[in-house]
Amino acid sequence: YAMLLSLIFLIVLVAAVVGFVFRHEIKTNFEANLSLALRDYNVTADRHSEAVDTIQRTLRCCGVQNYSDWERTEYFRQRGIPQSCCKSQDDCSEEDLKDLSKAKLKVFVDGCFFLVTSTMESRMSIVAGISFGIACFQLVGIILACCLSQYITNNQYEMV
């Protein structure tokens, strides 16, 4: 049991170190995938399109860097900027969303990439604290399992 807990502890430790070391690559990869999701937005109405809509509604953002990123997509040529970018759903018409100058007044202008990464970075201290707490419990479990193993091998543990 102590060996299993030690293995899990080491895997979590290695994952944390790798995540910290490669955080810039993770950001770059996220930005590329978000751009790809925008490019393929609503072509097949898949889960990537739903994820983009959820991010834009929740964080009140639009596009990768800003709302004008939608101009380079096939979806924009057909329907304009998506409704998920609108500040108010009642005040967004399809004609307004097809014109970038009109849309600027009706949609969120900030890009989602900066907001997502800043939100993740602001929550990293909470994640680190929780991870540290779990690691402490694992270490206590490892120590207690080793103590129990030592008692058993010394025949100090009574079988009932």
From TrEMBL:
InterPro entries: Tetraspanin/Peripherin, Tetraspanin_EC2_sf, TSN6/7_LEL. The keyword Glycoprotein applies. It comes from the Eukaryota. It is found in: Membrane. Residues 1-19 form the signal peptide. One of its GO terms (cellular component) is plasma membrane. Keywords: Glycoprotein, Membrane, Signal, Transmembrane, Transmembrane helix. The chain crosses the membrane at residues 126-152. The keyword Membrane applies. It is a multi-pass membrane protein. PANTHER family: TETRASPANIN, TETRASPANIN-6. May be involved in cell proliferation and cell motility. This is Tetraspanin-7.
